[in-house]
């Protein structure tokens, strides 16, 4: 499954509006750099990559929400936006 950048952008916008926060977009070239930045504590929120699952399952990352109308089958306890 490929990540959909538009869906990720819309989901982050919806989540941010509901949470009352204003995120600062940071462009990255590739998901490897995003993952190293979030795991290193350099950024606190991300969207648009499908490579996060092992890090959520290991407890290194916390998944706050997933985009879509139905919950993700791999993360049934995580709400959707």
Mean pLDDT: 84
Largest sheet: none
Number of strands: 0
Low-confidence regions: none
Q: N- to C-terminal separation?
A: 19 Å
Bin the helical content: 25-40%
| N-to-C series of helices and strands | HHH
Oligomer: single chain
What is the number of helices?
Answer: 3
How much of the residues is beta strand, in percent? under 5%
Radius of gyration: 12 Å
* Structural class computed from helices and strand pairing: mainly alpha
How would you sum up the global shape? globular
Description:
The structure is a single chain. The protein is mainly alpha-helical and 81 residues long. Helices cover 37% and strands 0% of the residues. It is built from three helices and no strands. It has helices at 5-19, 31-39, 53-58. The longest helix is centred in the first third of the chain and has 15 residues, at 5-19. It starts with a helix and ends in a 23-residue tail after the last helix.
């Amino acid at each position: 499954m490929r990540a959909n950048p538009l869906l990720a952008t819309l989901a982050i916008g919806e989540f941010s509006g509901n949470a009352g926060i204003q995120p600062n977009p940071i462009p990255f070239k590739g998901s490897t750099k995003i993952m190293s930045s979030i795991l290193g504590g350099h950024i606190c929120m991300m969207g648009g990559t499908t490579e996060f699952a092992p890090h959520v399952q290991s407890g290194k990352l916390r998944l706050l929400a997933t985009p879509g109308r139905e919950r993700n089958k791999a993360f049934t306890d995580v709400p959707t936006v």
